[in-house]
Amino acid sequence: LYAASKLRDVKFLIAGGYHVEAETGYMTKLKKMAPQNVIWTGYVEDAELPKVFGCMDLCIYPSRFISESGALLTIIGFGKALIARDLPPNREKPVMLFKTKEDLVDCVRQVLDDEELRMKLEEGSERYAKANSWMKIAEQHIKHYKKILQS
User: Fold this and answer.
1) Of 34, 108, 134, 144, which has fewest CB within 10 angstroms of its CB?
2) Exposed e or buried b for every residue in 100-131, given b needs 16+ CB within 10 A?
């Protein structure tokens, strides 16, 4: 919301479900604080994800706490340019990292203003997704199990 308030010429789409109920006091407060350039989708069905990701130039994953994230990996799987908080699990992924909310604003502007950078981040996401596909993971498991069985 801070980035949206500083980048009024950019539309922000906040998508996703809720961990508890749809309209908690916290969510209501956030929506009241949001500037006019923020659109809230709520939960998005899997079948609708290509449409949602298709309309985005970049994605932001601002979570402050993370061990691994299905949402972050979904973004990468759609080959989107991604900006994420500078946390250990994110450092190994093809993302632009930020530490502060001010850094986030700078990162968003940088990616939106530099098509080459955005394309580089998108290509990184595509490579990472391909290298870590379920097929690749299954192949690694089979290889590992065969090694164990041989010993």
Assistant:
1) 134
2) eeebbbebbeebbeeeebbeebbebbbebbee
- 3-state class (DSSP) for residue 134: helix
Give the pLDDT confidence of 57-82 residue by residue, as tens digits: 999 999 888 767 788 888 999 999 99
Q: Which among 54, 67, 56 is positioned nearest to 14, based on CA atoms? A: 56
CA distance 89 to 58: 19
Q: Of 30, 33, 35, which is closest to residue 9 (Cα–Cα)?
A: 35
pLDDT tens-place string over residues 14-25: 988 766 566 778
